[in-house]
Amino acid sequence: MTKTHKDWLDLNVDNIEPMDLSTVQKVHLKQTILKKTTKKRMPKWVRHIAAAAIIGISTVTTINFAFPTLASQIPFMKNIISYFDNTGTMFENFGNYATEIGQVQTSNGISMMIESAVYDGTSVTISYALETDIDLGIHPFIGGDFMDFKGSVGSGGGSRLEKVSDTKYAGYANLTPHFNKEAPDEIEISWKPQSFINMTTNAEVKGEWAFQFSVSKLTGAIQLVNEVVTNYDVTAKFKTLVKNDMTTVIHYEYAVKSDLLKEWPFISIHFDELRDNLGNLYTVSGNGAFSKDDGISYQTSATVQAIDPAATSLTFVPEIYFSLGSGKGMEIKEMDPVTINLE
């Protein structure tokens, strides 16, 4: 049974003892976006096996914010992002910029907590956790609609949830909502998981968890880029850099000739790392792609951690993934290197 707000307020906080904290889940959209699922780096062809096209329509609804249960009343998880190996990634400084959410809900023996979130103006990263005596396996899968962003027309990304003790699971989600107009300064999020599934046994625990919260955009600066590269009948245009204290987001778009789609129905462009002129190497996290014309053109972005302020340029090599569909065949071809001079 889901606890009411009164149940939580009547808890004797002094009798609640903090416990130690410590999955792979893929967000199933029209095209699957594959994310890093283990601390060991996956082969690039696995990470990009599907074309990163996200085409969806979300119903625009008004979110009525419920009285939140403060996580400080039930502190079974803290600093969740630290349970993952984030050195050198965009999550490295997550705790310094995250907005505390602190909502907890319990249903059918599973307590779920949304700890904190960061919105960099492009993507939203959320740390969350579970506490339960039910065995959900090593990497539980979350059933039902994943997450809704008010005003968005679709979203892409992924989540990672893994067991860290006998009764606790740590997780984070990184998703990019797509809007028909400029992204809002504050984003409103609704998340209603319907079940948790043990991927080993297929056992499913259904329940009612419903979270509603908002996160304000980190302040930052926009730099116009307009670097264009064309290879193999595919053109990529790198348009802007959005820089803040936590991340740097490269916004770009690409287009393919329609005849090429007859041979390769799924085409996407990715780059896994970039290097600045000082020799620093940055790991890139793709944010999914959005198409309004059945794959002829896409809008997309990629995120890295904040760039060294002393750097004056970034260089990377985009790669084109020509795919027949998952498991049906694929080719990868490098494009010409791209250098962006930093302001």
Automatic annotation (TrEMBL):
Gene3D superfamilies: bacillus anthracis domain (2.60.40.1630), Conserved domain protein (2.60.40.1640). It comes from the Bacteria. Residues 224-334 form the DUF5643 domain. The keyword Ion transport does not apply. Residues 44-131 form the DUF4179 domain. The chain crosses the membrane at residues 45-67. The keyword Electron transport does not apply. Keywords: Membrane, Transmembrane, Transmembrane helix. This is DUF4179 domain-containing protein. It comes from Lysinibacillus contaminans.
